[in-house]
Amino acid sequence: MKLFLFLTALIVAGATGVESCTPADRQALLDFKAALNEPYLGIFKSWSGNDCCSSWYGISCDSAGRVADINLRGESEDPIFERAGRSGYMTGKISPSICKLDSLTTLIIADWKGISGEIPPCISSLSKLRILDLVGNKITSVIPADIGKLQRLTVLNVADNSISDGIPASVVNLASLMHLDLRNNQITGGIPQDFGKLTMLSRAMLGRNQLTGTIPSSIAGLYRLADLDLSVNQISGSIPAELGSMPVLSTLNLDSNRLSGSIPASLLSNTGLNILNLSRNSLEGKLPDVFGSKTYFVGLDLSYNNLKGQIPKSLSSAAYIGHLDLSHNHLCGSIPTGWPFDHLEASSFSFNDCVW
Questions:
Q1: Cα dist. 232→17, 177, 190, 228, 277 in Å?
Q2: pLDDT in tens, 267-277
Q3: Would you list the DSSP string of 30-68?
Q4: Residues 283, 239: Cα–Cα separation, whole Å
Q5: Confidence (pTM)
């Protein structure tokens, strides 16, 4: 009899709809929603009823019925955006209630333009989190000091916000981090000297901040790093020659800083480096004559420095030079003839002392 009643209860539950996420997770989502205002698309209209795992916009769950992913992008090809004919706009803040979703692996709240407030410090308690993407909002305050606790985090993207203060020292403890994007904020202070501990890192985008100090030589130990952007900061000192020995580095942007000293020959002879921008610094000395048949630069910009001497003749042996800018230096001498100089603009060499 007891078994019959139990089975009957299951059948009734199935007919009326079993809750697909825990009441605690559902309430945490509702509290998160209550702190936000999305006036145009109506994406939160689906956030009703008990079935938050399969019918709530941007929410997905794991096999245990726990909320695992929040994916809310303000710029998307989703039909809801196409019908509205506009990108998203949302105001409010990210509620600390998000931290109650302790099975969360993905948290994307990106490109909503108007979300402000802080990154809840409790974010660092979400031990399963792999992706944290808050790009394109108006988030202020700081990156949580103990962000380094997120040992599974592979993506940390808080670009295009108004985040201030420094890069937390604990960032270097993110052992799984592959993509770091802090661009276009108001971050101050230096790059941690032990930045090279992030051995899984493939992209480090720190441009357009207010970073000071020097470039840590430990970065050269990041053998998976393909893209490094430190542009438009206040970084000083010399360029570590070790950067030229990085095996997969293909893009290096150090422009618009306060770098001094000479250009390491290893940078220009690194055959894997395709984009190199060192413009608008205080680099000096002669331009290393180290180009060869494997040199392949899509872009090479050394303009607005204090370089002297002649234009290296070895540039003529390069396999490819797509864009070259040596303007606004103190170079002197004739422009070599032949490839690649026969397809470069005269402006590539303008505003030097005596180039002809």
A1: 55, 24, 14, 13, 11
A2: 999 999 999 99
A3: HHHHHTEE--SS-GGGG--SS-TTTSSTTEEE-TTS-EE
A4: 9
A5: 0.91
